[in-house]
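Key result, reporting period 2: structure in, sequence out.
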């Protein structure tokens, strides 16, 4: 019997099942920690416990430094879509709807989701690696020794920065995306700017703008919370920093896609 158990534990089936169980257990553990940290952050925000200087620094980091990469990604995505859609729609007699289609696509989805991906890649990974380095070099332990709550000191300014700065970034990126789409439509199909922007106003309502801004608030808070949490629980030296950064990026990507699906079902289904 013992030899049979030993053989089974060495089998590929056992290793696959234990690996899946271990990953699932790790998933639940990480999700629980992120949730608890989020509850603590909400409590500190309600109490008004955020350092203004640190908050302004994080707002600059979250908003200003992320603009170049965000505008580039949203603009190029708009160019790619417009270059493939505009000419075909004009050929089929749908030129009057190119601006409408592009604007709805950018305002509802491309502007906010691609901005989220850009900020995850640049800011989220930076937040995770920064806090993970503080953890493995025992700087967070020193903060706790000084009777300072790390959640309040590290998490709150970064999450508030994500909440405050993500909507302006999305607005600017969406505007750039619409303009890039109009220019591309003009160059590829000959569609005039007047025809593009006249049709753009036909299908855009305040609901679309409101959902876009609300979605951006959730995206900003989620990216900052996940990145900070993954970095906060890092261990194992330099390898742990890399693993925490990778986990933060992956979790953030998955989280904002889930949020996007929830908003789509809630407001447009």
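The corresponding designed sequence is given below.
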């Amino acid at each position: 019997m013992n030899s049979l158990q030993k053989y089974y534990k060495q089998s590929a089936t056992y290793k696959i099942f234990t690996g899946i169980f271990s990953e699932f257990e790790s998933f639940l553990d990480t999700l629980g920690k992120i949730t608890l940290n989020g509850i603590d952050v909400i409590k500190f925000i309600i109490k008004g416990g955020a350092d203004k200087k640190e908050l302004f620094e994080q707002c600059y980091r979250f908003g200003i430094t992320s603009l170049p990469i965000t505008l580039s990604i949203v603009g190029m995505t708009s160019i790619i879509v417009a270059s493939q859609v505009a000419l075909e729609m004009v050929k089929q007699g749908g030129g009057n709807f190119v601006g409408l289609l592009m604007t709805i696509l950018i305002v509802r989805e491309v502007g906010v989701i691609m901005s989220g991906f850009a900020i995850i890649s640049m800011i989220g990974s930076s937040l995770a690696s920064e806090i993970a380095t503080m953890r493995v070099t025992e700087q967070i332990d020193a903060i706790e020794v000084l009777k300072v709550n790390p959640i309040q000191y590290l998490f709150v300014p970064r999450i508030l920065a994500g909440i405050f700065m993500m909507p302006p970034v999305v607005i600017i990126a969406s505007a750039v995306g619409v303009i890039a789409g109009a220019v591309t439509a003009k160059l590829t199909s000959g569609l005039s700017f007047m025809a593009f922007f006249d049709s753009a106003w036909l299908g855009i309502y305040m609901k679309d703008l409101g959902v876009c801004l609300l979605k951006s608030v959730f995206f900003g808070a989620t990216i900052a919370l996940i990145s900070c949490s993954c970095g906060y629980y890092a261990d194992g030296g330099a390898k742990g920093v890399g693993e925490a950064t990778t986990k933060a990026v992956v979790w953030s990507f998955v989280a904002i896609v889930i949020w996007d699906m929830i908003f789509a079902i809630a407001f447009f289904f």
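Residues 75 and 177 are 5 Å apart (CA to CA). The chain has a mean pLDDT of 88. This case is discussed further under Risks and Mitigation.
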